[in-house]
Amino acid sequence: MIIWHSLSLSQISTGVTVKLSGWGGNQVEQKLLKQVIQDFETQHPQIKVKYEVISDQYMDVIKTRLIGEAAPDVFYLDALEAPFLMSQNVLEPLDGYITPEFDLADFEPNLLNSFKYQNQIYGFPKDYSTLSLFYNKKAFANLGLNSPPKTWEELRSYSRQLTGKLNKYGFGEVPELARQAYKIKAFGGQIIGKNDNATFAREPGLQGLQLVIDQYQKDRTSAQKSDVGTNSGSEMFGQGKVAMVIEGNWALTYLQETFPNLEFATAEVPTINDKKNTMVFTVAYVMNKQAKHKAEAWELISYLTGKAGMEKWTGTGFALPTRKSVAEKLGYDRDTLRSPFVSGVSYATPWQAGKYPAAIVNNFDNQFISALLGEQPLKQAMVRAENAANQEITAME
């Protein structure tokens, strides 16, 4: 921790205000964050935190304010957006603030690495979620399926058996790149190359994506949300339209609250090509390089991502702690529903797509759905998406 006597007397006596910004989560999340901030202010009476929710166009607002030197001192940064901002010299490198008490080694390396750029740390992850398999226990019991599928071949076999029984489809598919990147990686493919250019149309990556196409077009045992009139994978599953779906930790609370009678369980994502994989989504607290009160801004970051602050923040289970010691203390690795999410963090593919993620993601999503619907062959669709993405990236560089 920064030692307080390093601050000037005038700062201590008049008090310092640190501005903090994030996007609007649900009400429970907002209430919890306000409580954690209140705890921080109680322990640091010389610092006030002005918390602001940016509920619309979050990254656009942050980028505009950074250019205009009006950005908050501390703010949320999603791993997907981190590579670009870290490369722009607008964030404060945090290595110089870290002390032994902060216990850097306690963070999950796979999460911390998403906020490293040119050997410097620019953010500390506040929470995360991986993806896990959700399955309907009643549907499984009806068919005498005693355990979740361990491999993708098994998942497809289960889907065939489950389709048209208690549920219309065996599996709910979410075709966005955010849910497909680990399948590209399973056969040695990559989303981007060294120059942040798209590379997902190469042969190894196509093997993983072909699994999705085959299940949807040949087996006809999977459905996407629009096929069954729902808004998300969680809703497809909750409404009983599909017997299995791959979703994030956030779906647990949603399902328990919205579909209280649904009997479900979770498991690690089935292996593909004999490899374990999943996605991991994480958000960090970062410091504005122009922050006027950097020592105080660091105090806030170190509290929010420290052991006590993180335990309070993740104690209700809607988000998972990025510190190993906190996860252990809260027992999430032993929680029947949450343990698959915790197990996946060490081998998960972080949700990042280089410095120009919008070009990569939008072009992939548009063309992959077109291929899924049979409007064009997979390879043609992905080559189109890759070329269009790379033209956009070239224009932005």
TrEMBL record:
<keyword id="KW-0732">Signal</keyword>
<dbReference type="Pfam" id="PF01547">
    <property type="entry name" value="SBP_bac_1"/>
</dbReference>
<comment type="similarity">
    <text>Belongs to the bacterial solute-binding protein 1 family.</text>
</comment>
<protein>
    <submittedName>
        <fullName>ABC transporter substrate-binding protein</fullName>
    </submittedName>
</protein>
<keyword id="KW-0813">Transport</keyword>
<dbReference type="InterPro" id="IPR006059">
    <property type="entry name" value="SBP"/>
</dbReference>
